[in-house]
Amino acid sequence: MYQDxxxxxxxxxxxxxxxxxxxxxxxxxxxASDYYLTITESKKFTNEDGSFYYKKHKLYLYKEDFNxxxxxxxxxxNFIIEERGSEVISERHEKNYQPNxxxxxxxxxxxxxxSNLNFEDI
Length: 122
Fold this sequence. Notes:
The protein is an alpha+beta fold. It has a domain at about 1-85: Nuclear Transport Factor 2, Chain: A (Roll), CATH 3.10.450.700. It has one helix spanning about 65-85; strands at about 1-5, 10-20, 20-30, 35-45, 50-60. A hairpin with a 5-residue loop joins strand 3 (about 20-30) and strand 4. The radius of gyration is 25 Å and the shape is flat. The protein starts with a strand and ends in a 38-residue tail after the last helix.
């Protein structure tokens, strides 16, 4: 347990590193000895000279809001998965993107994607 720069006691902490972003989930103690959660997003940026800096955004979540927050967060996440699936669409635009799903490949050795059909086959 230690105090942060604002004087709040930190009780529990987990870190999620996600590319240029890092998320910190910290349980802290109020002066009244109750707990609350802070979620901090820290995003790394690079200056023109090559040095870097971080921008941080912090969310304070108190116990009285946990149930509603959790419910709405789950609802929003489920909506996203139902509407767009779990694939991260931005990955498609990366330079060396390789789809991880199974694709159907033609057994023909030719380079054409079209099938040779005779009208008798239809």
